[in-house]
Every structure is written in structure tokens, then in C-alpha cells.
Model the fold of this input.
Amino acid sequence: MIETPQHRQTGRLTVRQITSRAYRVPLNFTLGTSVRTLKVVPLVLVDVQTEEGPVGRSYVFGYTDGGARAIAACLAEAEEVLRGHRSTPHGLADLLTKRFKLFGITGAVRMALSAFDMAMWDAPAISAGLPLATMLGSNRTFMPAYDSRGLGLMPTDDLARQTEQLLELGLGALKLRLGYPTLAEDLAALKTVRKHAPEDVSIMVDYNQALTTAEAIRRGKALQQEDILWLEEPIRHDNYRGNASIARNLDLPVQIGENFNGPEAMADAIALEASDHVMPDIARIGGITGWMQAAGIAAGHGIEMSSHLMPELSVHALCASPTAHWIEYVDWADPILEQPVCIEKRGIRVPEQPGFGISWSEEKLRHLEMI
Done:
């Protein structure tokens, strides 16, 4: 089908085919957290072919091999529902939500629908010849970024070496994972990184849900003396009342949000004052459609909003968010992309190419293990 001026004005596209494939991607930095140690990550690559011509692309972190397979299975079912439908991303998101509602829009289902939604935003931006951030109404083309590739749970000598390695990239902040058996070990790790990082490089810490509420308050009161940007996910992510108690008892900002299941969950957390900042994951919040709804909620409450993983996609959404704060940088997608994310002056630059500005490197993919 030939693209028409009417299509360019309305942004309506017709779904022809949804394809996905998953790969095990080795990490440049082994990442040890209080949950598990990551050496390889499963990434699910998604292509949506439209009848009008543009191909929308996205990718998501599948967490486990089984998770990646489940996401792919949900996308295959979504194709059966959507093939031949001509609509906007909002309309298609509504259709899929109704289809999967009884099954539950969470976990692999949410991530599959988010991946499709992102691809269906990518396609009209490509058609319009605009970076997605621009099509979303953003005047920003740059976001300050922090390096989240390493600094897992490890001996202090290794932390010192890795801090120096990460600093070579030149970003303005580093994320340190904590959750050692004792507070003394947490403080030793933090002091090690602080000692080897310049004064103008900020540090945020992430417990990956390792603590109890009382222990988080105890450790937080010690950590807030150490000049850090935020305390991330100290306890179970959906214990909003517990997180609210921590936030009330600390001067140090509390950060949660990577596990928000859609903008509704973020609204619930904010209503309970569960954190000082929020950081949705674009694959769990509902893709671009869900992200922009969440961005409005954050803006309405004057809460700073950061991103979680997938910087190539998140930079567009974050630039269009009124209370944009920090973008999390990881290089996990470098082995699947023709062009890695653009690092510039302590942050990430929105690419000038239309859409997300991503394309798969088939040459690189040949060297990866498929799931």
C-alpha cells in the first residue's frame, strides 16, 4: 500500500506482521546484585511491518530465557488480533488491553504489549521523518546520564578498578549496588567508589529490594551522610506503605519505579507518597503510550522522573517528559544494533534519524546465541 498524505496527518497505520526473535547477549561488565549475578541478558527484538511501508522496531529485556519466550508467544497472539487493523498506537493499545484483560496485563503480557506499542510509535515517526522525541513534542535533544553497567556486589579492590574503568566513558554519575550482609560493608563499598570518583561525579545506590523497612531506615540514615543522589528500591517494590515510611524518615531521596505495572501502579505509589522520585521501565509502564500517561502523572505531582534500562528507546520518552531527571545508561544493546546510543558531554543525545533511530546489525546477530 502506498503511503498517503492522509496517513501522514493522522498517524494511522495498518499492521501486516509482527515478528520477534530473542538472543542471549553477553555483558561487558558482570553485574552482581542482591537478587542475582548477570553475565548474559536475554533481549527480545521486535519488528512490526505495516501495510503502508514503515517498519517499527523495539526491543525489551526478557529477564530470563523463559520470560523472553513468553514475550514472543504473546506477540504472536497479538499479531493474530491486530493483523489488518488500521489505527493509531493508542487505538491498538486499547484493542490489545481488551484482548488480554482476563489473562492479566502484567509480566510477559505487559512487556509484549509495551514492545509492540513502542514499535507502533517508531513506525509513524519514521514515516514523518522525525525523531520520536520530536514527534512527541519534545524540545530537548539531550539527557544527563548515569553509568549503570557495573559496580555490583564485589570486593572493594574490584570496585576501585571498575570505578576507574567506568569513568573512562565520561558520564556524570555512577550507580552502585548495595545489599552486603552488613551496613559496614555497604559503607566501605560506597567510600571506595567515592574515593576513586571525581567530586563532580554523582553516585546513586540501589539495594534491589534487599532490605526490610526497619533496616532500610537504619542503613539509609547512615548513607545520607555520604552525599549520594538517591536510595533506590530498598525494600520490596510494591510495598508502597513501607517505602513511604522510609521516605518520611530519611533526608535522602528514595527512588522506586522500575517495576511499576502500568501508569496506574505509579499513580497508586505517588498517592501513598512511596518515593521522592520515580523511574519507570518503558517495557513495564506500557511502552510510549503508558510512559506518556505516567509522565503526566509525575508532572502533575511535581516528581522527578528517570528511566530504567533500554536507553536507546527511553531517551525519546524521557526527553518528552516535563519532569525528566536522569537516564540510566547500559550498553546491553550494543551487540544487536548497527549504531550504539550516542554518548555526549556526560549524557545521551537523541539521534537525528527518524523514529527511535535504531536498526539491527545482522552481522553482529550472527555471533549471538538465539533463545
In short: Residues 256 and 335 are 29 Å apart (CA to CA).
